[in-house]
Amino acid sequence: MVPALHIFRRLRRRLVVSLAAAALAFAGLIAFSEASHAATQGPCDIYAAGGTPCVAAHSTTRALFASYNGPLYQVQRASDSSLQDIGVLSAGGVANAVAQDSFCAGTTCTITRVYDQTGGGNTLVYQGPGGTGGADTAATANTEALSVGGQEAYALYINPGNSYFAYNSTGGVPTGSSPEGEYMVTSGTHVNGGCCFDYGNTETDHKADGNGAMDAINFSTECWFGGCNGTGPWVQADLENGLFSGGSKTWNPNQVSETSHFVTAMLKNNGTTQMALKGANAQSGSLTQFYSGALPTGYNPMHKQGAIILGSGGDCCQTNRNASAGTFYEGAMVKGYPSDAIDAAVQANIAAAGYSTTTPFTSGAKVSLQATTSCCTTDYLQHDTSDDNVVIAPVTSSSSSTVKGDATWIVRAGLANSNCVSFESANTPGSYIRHYAFQLHLQPNDGTSQFAADATFCSKPGNSGTGYSLQSFNYPAKYIRHYSFTGYIASDGGTNAWDTTSLWAQDTSWLVAAPWS
């Protein structure tokens, strides 16, 4: 492409960027909807069938009812403070991460609220200025990307200083000594000992109001009363004025550290005589019961107030800041004391959901790679039909089949390293993206070790915090980058024009979109 054409395209893009971004979001929604499969049953359907209906249901990853087709959460982008709800790909399905990726491209986003899927109005809002008030902030929206049922999703990744709260006096959350159950899917890889990574029933006034004023799951390495065995993290009960590993202040020897990346944590409390704690690997297997027995002394009866906390203790965060770290994927609170059979069925449903850390770069998958720099969010990495150069250019639903094929790649195990990937052209079989003199080309695999190394790239979290970056196997300081609409491998600073630090992080970050062909 000649420079004059570059200039023309940039001017054109400035005129149509808003319309194009909207069209892209819609096209992405349709494309992924066709590939997704709605759930036949969600955790809250299971609870309802067992006579313990959900009174609050929260998730950034999937619908918790088979029929739910509304928003899961809301994001706010830093560039202009605009808000957007992120829904599901189809009723009962996985989050529409493509909509978040498109909305947040070229900037950062935070998760400002997590909607209550029950319709009861118990929507979690961040505890900070502009949220529910307080000293905390909203969590960054794209810190952890994951896969649910083979579809991309994002976690609510809470660091110290992030937390969420909900209170609706008519929301149906159990109060006083009424029985209650709750679960969350969290992570054993992002925890600390700060107070207090909780999800569940809490005080309405953000104060420590005495024994039994809280009934929340805690997941952390915090050893409140001492004498703990192991290093955690553990599933415990925050009942206010203490984290309980069992029915007393003495350490429960049946506790087990839950270190899996995805962890199911459960707590149920009948409000007067009994509680139970359970946990499991959220990807497979059955629940382990850590405790089932009497409530701790001084907590009978319970005095629940009916607010909901996520990511902090109950006496947070109006004048102070949350000290805990943790990850939230999904969770629900129910009215009543669920049976063990219902607990087991919910765990089976969670395991069947397909939580995975797997990137979308699985061998044999077809993908399209979408630019994230604000200038170019309608552009995709593709091969130029007039030569062997790899470039970025627009693709829409009305593009020709040839153009769509040019922008579609088949993921292969890395030709030089199977832990990385290579990209074969979908419409030129046997030809791969490779770099030569640091520029990207589409060329047939000649079987040499040099070609294999030049055509191998390693997937990394996006350098800009969005999507993925593709690191050159044989030049690990360099990543696939678009510069003046042409593909290169580029370092963050260097002697070549395409090594400029300006927009390097954005230019080297790509969204994995539904394949165009």
TrEMBL record:
Domain Alpha-L-arabinofuranosidase B arabinose-binding, residue spans: 370-512
Presence of the UniProt keyword Hydrolase in the record: yes
Top-level lineage group: Bacteria
Keyword field: Glycoprotein, Glycosidase, Hydrolase, Signal
Signal peptide (residue range): 1-38
All residue ranges annotated as the Alpha-L-arabinofuranosidase B catalytic domain in the record: 43-356
Gene3D superfamilies xref list: 2.60.120.200, 2.80.10.50
Family to which the UniProt record says this protein belongs: Belongs to the glycosyl hydrolase 54 family.
Stored PANTHER family: ALPHA-L-ARABINOFURANOSIDASE B (PTHR39447:SF2)
Protein name: Alpha-L-arabinofuranosidase B
